[in-house]
Structure formats: C-alpha cells, structure tokens
Amino acid sequence: MMKKPTISVIVPVYNAESFLSRCIDSLLSQTLQDIEVVLVDDGSTDSSKAICERYAANDNRVKIVSQSNRGVAMARQAGIDAARGVYSIHVDPDDWVEQTMFEEMYAKAVEEDADMVICDFMVDFADRNYVASQEVGKCEPDDCLNRMMYGKIHGSLCNKLIRSDLYSRYKICFFDGINYCEDYLTCVQLFIQGVRISYIPKPFYHYDQVVNNNSATRRYTKETLQTQFRFFGKLCEILNGRQEKALSHVISVIAFDSYYNDIFSSAEFSVIFGRYRKDFLKSKFKLKRRIALFLAASGFMKCARKIHK
Questions:
Q1: Is this prediction's pTM over 0.90?
Q2: Contact 134, 207 (CB under 8 A)
C-alpha cells in the first residue's frame, strides 16, 4: 500500500484564476514537504481548472477533483472524501499560508496527541492587517464550542489541523445547500465528540480581505439571510438541546447582520425576527445593541436606529 501523506490540504476552487497561484505556491513551498494538495474544482467557468492541471502536471503532490458546481460545502466534502493524509486542513483559494505552518502544527499534534490543532491567523487589508488571536482557553471541547459560538474562536477550518479519520469515525459531514458557515458546522460536530484540542498562538494563515470581491462573506442580500437560517436550523439540530444560551447569541449575530445591512423594511424585519426578541436580550451584545434589536424586531425600527447610532 502507498504511504499516506502526513497532511492533506483541501482547496475548494471556484473561479479563482486571479489569486489561485499565490495560494498553491504557498502550499507547495511548505517546510513540511510530505503533503498532498487536493484541488477541488467546483465547476469553474474561468481558467481555474487549467491552472490546477498545470500544477498537477508539475508536482505529483497535487491532485485534482472535478465536479459540477455544487457550492463550497460539497466541494469541501469532495476534498475530504478524496484526502489520504493522516491529518487534513482546508485552505481557501484567495488566501495563503506561512511557510512553516504545516510543520509546526503537525509537530504540535504529535507532541500532544491532538485530534485538532488550532492556530491564530492574520486578517489582511490593503493598508493594514491584524492578528486574530483565538481565545482557546483550556482546550476543553465543550468550552471551545461555547467560545466559538460567542465569537472568541473563529469557526473556520482554515486555522485547524484535524485528524482525518475523525470524519468517518464520527460520520462528520458537510451539508448540501448550506454554504454559509459550512465549516463552522463541521467544527461543532467535532467539538461535541470530545476531540483532543491543542493550540499554537501563532498567526500562520493569511485571510485576505482584498483580492476576492465576489466572496460570499463580503456581500449581503436577502438570499444571504435564507442561507443563514438554513445554517442556524442545522446548528440547532446538531446541538440537540445543548448550548441554548449561546444559540441566543448566534441568532442575534444573524439578526444584527441583517439589521446592519438595512435591506428589509421595518415590517419585514419584525416578521422575520419577531419570535427571537427574547433571544436578543439574552445575547452578549452591549446593552444598546440588544435593545435596538429588540425594538427593531418589535416593529420599531426608527426607535432602534436612534438608540443604536
């Protein structure tokens, strides 16, 4: 049998021609060379697939998975299904990573026999960047789940090295049609299984806020809210009665996203969010924001705007 690579790096690719090479170059130049890079072409209509094929022809560590366009969740799932590495990690095509990321995260996993290793990351803008430090605490899975739901740990898989066989062992999967926080749901599924967690307080991953103007996380529409509600419904289903107080905060974050982007009328907002008014008061937002959301969900949007300026 062929030896398994140490790490499988899964890259979901869709119309990423203008920044994909930077991402792949950062993966192939890692100090840990025993990796495979799984490029999942999700039905790209630009030259992304040709770029993937060029890298695969020049480096046998690169493999390509092609599928018709099904969204990022199913692209990630296809990558996991194809991955052979002992550990795996996801990297988005508009981002890039520091050269020692995989070596240091894998060393930490071996040292502490960890199922998951979390690191910090950089958020890069055109004129500045900052370190997004993860408040992991004691690395207990229930506590990490709670911290993630309150926004102290990021819900991305891009800063988490994960033992690959956990996906099959615990039947952890991505959900078709949920392409908002799809990786967050995977983290939730892992945390509730009591996985062993380690943390490295170093920002290896670069989360680029500039190059991809089409990123779904940077534009808000009415369809965005529908996707958020699908995510929230699945989150409640997975938790099955756990973390009820933290769920109040999660739905408050979703509501504030809608409130901030101001694409619903006062009447529409109250119809959509009226049943969550009590949840808004239980969130960990500052008092003015909690009251503003409560008023907006009660049909008093003008009053809400005056309070929360």
A1: yes
A2: no
* Confidence band for 308, pLDDT divided at 50, 70 and 90: confident
Rounded to a whole number of angstroms, the distance between the first and last alpha carbons of the chain is: 63
Number of H helices, E strands in the chain: 13, 9
| Residue owning tokens 């290896």 | 204
What pLDDT, in 10s, does the model give residues 243-279? Answer: 999 999 999 999 999 999 999 999 999 999 999 999 9
62-67 and 129-132 strand pairing: unpaired
Q: What are 172-226's pLDDT values in tens digits?
A: 999 999 999 999 999 999 999 999 999 999 999 999 999 876 665 567 999 999 9
Give the integer Cα–Cα distance in Å for 85 and 54: 22
**DSSP labels for 262-305?**
T-S-HHHHHHHHGGGHHHHHHSSS-HHHHHHHHHHHTT-HHHHH
Check if CATH label 2.70.98.10 holds for domain 7-211: no
Phi, psi (deg, nearest 5) at residue 13:
-120, 125
Report how far apart, in Å, the C-alpha atoms of 53 and of each of 49, 58, 64, 269 are.
6, 9, 7, 47
CA-to-CA distance for 269 and 114, rounded, in angstroms? 44
Look at residues 78, 201, 208 and name the one whose alpha carbon lies nearest to residue 139.
Answer: 201
Please state the domain extents for the chain.
Answer: 7-211, 217-307
DSSP 174: -
